[in-house]
Each structure stands twice: as structure tokens, then as C-alpha cells.
Amino acid sequence: MFTFWDNFFYSIEHEGLIRIINLFWYYFYIEAPRFVILDVIILGIILFQSRRNKLNFKRARYELLAENPLVSIIVPGRNEGQHIFKLVNGLREQTYTNLEFIIVDDASDDDTYLICRDLKENGLIDVYLRNDIRGGKASAANLGLRYAHGKFVIHVDADTSFDRNAIENILVPFYMEDNVGGVGGNVKVRNIHESIATSLQAIEYLQTISVGRVVTSYLGIYRIISGAFGAFRRDVLLRLGGWDVGPGLDGDLTIKMRKLDFKIRFAANAVSLTNVPSSFSALSRQRMRWSKSLIRFRLRKHHDIYLPQANFSFINFFALWENIFYNLILDFFWWIYAINLLVTNFDFLLFLIPLKFIIYGIGSTFQFTLAMMLSERRSQEWKLFMYIPLMMIYNGYYMRTVRTIAYLREILFKSSYRDAWNPQKSSKKAMEIGI
Amino acid sequence: MAELRITKLPNIYNREIAYITLYEESDIRQLALYDALILDYTDATGCLKLLRQCRSSFIGSIYLIPIFIYSIEKNIDPKVESMSDGIISSLQVEGIITKIDKLKSRQANLTTVDSDTPDIRIMTKIMRYLYTREIKLQPIVDPHSSLGYSYPILSEHYNNGNISDMFRLTDDLINREFFKPKFVDRLHLCSNCYSSFINYRETCPKCGSGDLVTENLIHHFVCAYVGPEHDFHSGDYLVCPKCNRMLRHIGVDYDKPSLVYTCRNCLNTFQEPNMEAFCFSCQKHNPVETLIDKQIYSFELTPIGEETALHGFGKEIKEELDLPGFITFTTFNIFLKYEIERAKNNNRLSSAGSLILSLADADRHKLGVGYSKLVTEIADFMKNATTSTDILSFINNNTFLIISPDSEPARLHNVLENIRQSLLKLLLSSLPNIHINLIIKAIPISGYKSHNEIIGELIML
To answer: Top-level CATH class of B1-108?
Structure first.
């Protein structure tokens, strides 16, 4: 063992830092500048502007509370009865109270009907709509939208829970700037310690949502308001016709809003908690679905964003291109890089793996530290630090493999149209017209 | 006063049969003189009116009189038919003589009774009518009754305002085991007036208005738009308001996943309206869950009911508890008859008395099985407080009877009063939360009253 580490450090010294950087150019030239350095710079700027931001937030909050607009909370779902009572009770604890609760039951075959009817009779929900024939999540959300009366619509998943000021905080950005069409809430993991899979996802959510979306929102390239917790101006939603056939309908809606030149913002202080898949098989299925939507919507349906045309917007082009570049192109490119690294540096292989662990570990630690700096519940979340070493395997190999398979399936077979998540009658029609 | 036009129908059977053709306001007591009546149905209204007058009378010879309807047409008012003893198409009396005789002979079996309370009078009357006719009390559909059904004769005593009293009476008849019920229909009645003339309507859960419109929801598959059907109307076509595509084929382009209601009064949209039952009789808006669920039965006289019809109340009673030292009611009757005979022959005065245990239903319910224990304790007390020559019996689950031979009523009354006072003190301490009433009676056993009359007097409250 002593000999291994002796050789390891000898090799580093002998080979030199330049070779190491050249070996890991993918990380040092592509991933680190984007996901570490840029995050640090932007967060630094935000910190620098924090006094001004706080004043602006305070003013906007005052405006919101003075106007006190009606806000419709739409909860579309199928067989979510067990969550509805907790959700409604939780939302009644909110600091913002002018709320209209709309539950849309997409042909549930559990006790959802009985539970919702009871809640309705007791005045805990305002509108309960039930479809006897399943139509899918988009149609359920659209039905809720059709009968919503609020100035703003908040779309939530039934198994989401909220900090007491979450609704208030997600509404404030509409009053901080003009022309904000939608605001995404900060979604964190509730079942954080249920399994290794949930702990790793908790770290991932902290990095990509709690930190990542602050950065993309600041840069104006924030492109997905999570379906678990997102607020929209109702008039904008009506103009867009609401949600289109999924899966991936939340990202699709955000792009449609961007195309109409509405700003999309992220509210880091509007915190919600959701349960994430606790097994890697369930997680793989979920991520397959999410990843396919990148091809289906950002590459196919909204391909016009990349084309020079009358409505061309550089910021939208950049927002989607950045997404496509880092998630799709570099994903395939990484496999070439990895194979090449193995073939050409086979003699160095013994040292490559521990070296990569160290490099990625340092990067992940840095990202995690940033997330902890922003977190409002760091006392609970810092324990996730022990899982940081596994993040290299989780992000670097596991997620990349799942994504790659999903991309290939969607590119070659358009398999998202056969996903059972959506009723076949809708997927079939959507496929026919290529959306 | 105008008169009825009555023609006596001559016959070889020596029966006084009246044929009535003209109906005017008149004193119906004169009809008791006839053996039977034949009412001409040409004036259907007058016919029904007289029939009702006869059947609603409390005079046995009138309400029990055989009445036939003479009509050559087939469509007879079911109410008339139900209260008559038959429809005839000829005035030849041969066809009805047998029936008249049978009715008369059964009527002759009836003992004269006095009934104190209106309920008892009606019960007796109905049971006697059923007994003489050997029929069931069959409800008939009656659109003119707020209940929707009427019972021949019985309903004559309960107009639309006191239908609940009629149900109370029939329930009482069932509980006393005079009537055996058979299910006919189930009604939902207004909680205020027992009317079944009710309009069920859907109302807005928000404002209560019944001015609602219902629409199908349409789900357009391609773009996932869902909205009420009118969103899609474009002339004769259905066009999606979101994507402007024409909806051509249900199941392929679109479906209709559910219905929505919109209130035209407050514009509230909902899928589950409230159900309300509006009573046309008293105009009350009833929530459907408050409607009274009542079953309509046909009733058949039980053997106990027949016995009561024949001899009046008091005879139907059965011995329910086997109390040591107490004789059965049948034996008690034998002793009573013997005492009556003794009084007749020897001119000796004996007394009969009763102690009736009266409890409110709620208290009776509260006591549950403890009631038997209470009765047994009272029986023990009575046995100890009376002499060995006294004859004791227990009937009707609440009445203790006593024959005190060679004893004056005043003495028996004193004995019973002492028993009553002592029992009340005892029960007050052992059952402080139960309100117990003990009623005593003591009457002479003379040779002038039948045993039925004496029993009747003793058990009537």
C-alpha cells in the first residue's frame, strides 16, 4: 500500500501538473469553468449586490402584500389521495393566505375521490374536478387552469410540502421586475436519508437547483420551472394555452414562455420539499424520462430557437444551446474522451482513477460548500458531505450512462411517445404531428 | 236537509237492501237500518262521498255495512273499489246475498266494546273491518294524497296534516302484533309534513340556486387542452381554442372525460351539485339526507289482532314473563268468570284491581334487560304484600292484575296504594335516573259486568 501511494505521488511529481491538466482537460477546460468557476463568480456578484437585492425584494414584497392578489394553486394528479390532505393542510399554514385550491383528479382509482370530496365539503379546497377518463398530467393541469380565477397560478405536485413563506417568496419576483412570466421554486429532497440514492440526489438537487438555478436565473438562461413547484401569471398561461402533452411538460412550458419574451426567474428562498426515488432503478426510469424530453422538446419541438428567423432571441438561443452543449453534445463527446484516455494512457491507468476521485472530489466539495453557504437548512444538510466522494461515480458515470441511453433511445426510436407516464391516445396524436 | 234517493230492492231473502241513486247531504244514521247498500256509480263523486261518510263513521253498524257499487262501466275509482265490498253490474241481489250474509254473520261475532281514546277507536274499527271482510289492509296509489298512497278507511281519519299520526298508529299495531306487515313500497317523505310530493333537484353548493347548466368537458388529445364543450363550438364544428385544430372524431381526436355544472346565478363551477328535495306540500327545502325514509306495507290481521277485533283491547294479551306465584292470564280469566258467577248467585262482593307499570320509551330503552328484573322485583313485592287468597296475574308486559275475593274495592285500593307507595320509594332509591309511574285501579266484581268489560276497565290508562 505504501508503495502504491509512493509511486502515485512520484508519478505526479514526475509527470508534472501540466500533464495532469492535459489528461483531465475535460474537467479543467469544460466542466470546472462552467459548474465551479462561473458559479463562484456569479454568486460573488449576487453577494456584492445583496443589499440592493434585499431592498428590491422588500419593496416587491410590500407591493405583493398591498395588492394581495388571488393565487390559484393547481394540483393535478392521479392516485394522489394519500398526499392531498397533508398538502392542503400544509398550504393552510402559509403566510400568504389569499389562495384558491384546485385539485384535479385524473381518473384516480384509489380513495382520492372520497378524500377530496370530504375536503371540499369541509371547505379545505375550493374546486375539485375529476375526470373519469385519464387524460394525462398536462390535460389535468389545463383543466385546473380553465377554472382558475387567480392572477397567478402555482402548479404543485401533490407530494410536495412547503416552507411557511414559500408561496409568498415565489410570488415576490413577479413584483421585482417587469415582464416576469414564471418563477420556479427551490425544490429540495425530503427523504434525504432514506437511501444512498436519495442522499446523492439531495446533493445533486442542492448543486443543480439551489445553486445552479440561482446562476442560470441571474444570467437569464434559466430554462425549466419545476412541475413540483412553479408559479405563473395566469394571463400568460392562458395565452400559451397552458401545458402541452408530456413527459417534460414543465420544461416545454418554460421555453414557450421564453419564446414570448417573458422573463423566467428562480426563487431560491421559496423552498419546497419533495420525495425522490429511493432506488436506483426508479431513479433511472425517472431520469430516462427527463433526459428524453431534452431531445423531444429542446431539440425537436423548439428547433426554431436555433434558426435565424424573425423572432430570433440570442438569450433564448444561448439558454438552450448551453443546455444542449453541456448535456447532449459533451455527453457523447465524453465517451470518446474517456475511451481515448484509457487507450492512450493505459500505463497511467492505476493512477488515473484515484486522481480523478481527488480532482472531482475537490470540485464537488467546492460546489457543496457554495450550496451550504446559500442553504437555509444547512444544519440538516451538511451531513450529506460524507457522500461527496460518491458524487463522482453518481454524476460522472451513473447519470451520464442513463442520459446517454435515454438520448439514443429518443433520437433513434422516439421512445418518449411510448412512455406509460402519458396516455397513449395523447402521445400517438402528438407523435403524428411531431410535437 | 235534503235526502238521499233510496230505493229498497225487493228480494225473496228478506234482506233490507237499499239502492241509492242520488246523493245529497243527509244523515247517514238512517243507513244503519239496512242490511246492505248498493250505490249507483253514475254520480261517481257523490258515490265516493257517501262511501267515505259511511266508512269514516265510528258507528259499527254503519262503517261495517256491506256496500256494493253498481256500475256498468269498467273504470271505477280505485278508492271507491277499495272501500266497497264489490262492484256489481246488475241489480239482481242474488249475486251478493251470500256475501252479505257472510259479512253479517262475522259482524255478529263482534263483542260490544267501549273505546276511550281516539287511537283505540280507530284501531278497533280498522281491525273489525278487516276481520269481517277477511281481507288485508292494502294501500292504493293515490295521487290526491300527499303521501302518494292511501289506506282504505284508515286514511279517512288522517288527512294530509297528520300523516305522521297514521304511521304512529300502524307502527303501534305492528308492535302490539295485531298486524303483520308486508312490504309494498319505500317512500322518502318531507321531514316537515310527511308529504311525498317532492321535487328532487340539483343546486349550486355555493349559492343554493337551482339555475344550473351542465356541459361535457372535452379533452383534445393533441394539445392537452381541456375545457367545457362551448369552448370548442365554432358554428357547426368543434375547433380547439388552443391549437385551432378541428376535432373530427371522438376517441381519436378527443374524448369527454366528465361533466361540469355551472351556476347561472353565481357562476360557480363544480362537478358535484348538492341534492335538494323541495316539498310541494309545505314548500320546505329539505337536504336529501333529512328526508324521512318510510316503508309502506300492506297489513294482515294476526290471530291476536283477530281476537282483539272480536273482543276489544285487553284480550289480546299474552303472558310474557313466568312469575312465581302468578297465574296465566287464561287461568285468571277463568277465576274472574267464577267470581262474577259467585257475585251473581251469592250477592257477595269481590274486587279486581290492577297495577300498571308505566315507563317512558327512553327509560325503558335505558333499562334494557333490567326491565325483566324490575318486573320480577315488583311481582315479588306484590306477592308478599297481598294475602294468599288473592289471585295474581301479569299481562301485557306491564300490568299486574289481582282478584281479591270477598273484599271491597276500597280495601283493595288501599292495599294497592300501599304497594304503590312502598314500591315508588324503593325504586326511587335503586333507580334514581328512571322516572317510574305506577297506576292503580280497584273495581268491584259485580254480576252485571262481563269479564271482558272488567279486564278492559282495569288495563285502560
So the answer is: alpha beta
